[in-house]
Amino acid sequence: MILELKQVTKVFPVRRRRKGWFNKQDSEQAAVKQVSLELQRGECLGLVGESGSGKSTLAQCILRLEALTSGEIWLDDQPIHTGRMKDIHLYKRIQLVTQDSSSSLHPRMMIRDILEEPICNYFPERKAQALEICLSLLKSVGLEADCLEKYPSQLSGGQKQRVCIARALAVKPEIILFDESVANLDMVTQSSVLDMLKRVQVERQLSYLFITHDLQSTRTFCDRIAVMYQGEIVEIFQEWDENLLRHEYTRTLFQTLTE
Q1: What is the biggest distance separating any 2 CA atoms in the chain, rounded to whole angstroms?
Q2: Fewest CB within a 10 Å sphere: which of 18, 80, 126, 214?
Q3: Does the pTM exceed 0.85?
Q4: Domain total for the chain?
Q5: What CATH number has the domain bearing residue 16?
């Protein structure tokens, strides 16, 4: 096991106005409720749920972009919920690839600069080999070398997403979190990107947490699937057998695949 979440909870304060501007009532909303989850080495774990179910908030908690209200997160045998991120190089070991590749890539930077930046930041001793590393990264994600001299606006949506993946790979992570990363791609491009990700996972011995609202995209891509509903993990399954499912929400998701 490489990543373990123990009873992770994230509560956000909610301020509501009542009876005029100065009379306000404070309350709380739990976006993530006592989530316990394990990610094994070399595994692709799917995290499926509708919008607003807490999936992205959970990813932000793992990356320490959001502080936990309670619970623990362990990377190997080290706690990462305590805030000591620099001690264990969290940002190097865990990378995030989001849904919107356009906003993730600086529009005025060439792809070469985008890829070289993390290499030089994390491996300054390899600055002289940065170009060679960039070419290797492009090859890994299925892009041609001439992409290095292009700007993000000159690439297709699928190509930009591959650049985002290459940038994540540049720091040699152990875990990559994919937050709706293929949601904006057409079915053909999506299938191609997923095939590439599976190959890269095997080649680099990576662990994936694949967050999506689309159960169908996890069917052949993920080893196990955790279902999140209203901030909670309601079911974790491996066998695609509707008769083995226990939670009503999971069965509803399965029914949408056959409609």
Answers
A1: 65
A2: 18
A3: yes
A4: 1
A5: 3.40.50.300
- Which contiguous run of DSSP H or E holds residue 94? strand 94-97
Domain extent for 212:
3-258
CB atoms within 10 A of CB 244: 11
In what helix (H) or strand (E) does residue 117 lie, and over which residues does it extend?
helix 111-122
CA 6 to chain centre: 19
Name, in order, each residue with C-beta under 8 angstroms of 165's C-beta and a sequence gap of 6 or more. Answer: 97, 141, 176, 181, 193, 196, 197, 200
Distance in angstroms (rounded) separating the CA atoms of residues 187 and 93: 30
Please state the length of the chain. 259
Measured at the CA of 55, the angle between CA 189 and CA 70, to 5 degrees, comes to 155
DSSP reduced 3-state for 154: helix
CB 33 within 8 Å of CB 9:
yes
- Taking only the tens of pLDDT, the chain with its 259 residues reads 999 999 999 999 886 656 555 555 567 889 999 999 999 999 999 999 998 999 999 999 999 889 999 999 999 888 888 765 555 467 789 999 998 888 899 999 999 999 999 999 889 898 899 999 999 999 999 999 999 999 999 999 999 999 999 999 999 999 999 999 998 888 999 999 999 999 999 999 999 999 998 888 888 899 999 999 999 999 999 977 777 788 888 888 887 765 5
Token digits for 163?
């650049």
What are the φ/ψ torsions at residue 134 (nearest 5 degrees)? Answer: -60, -45
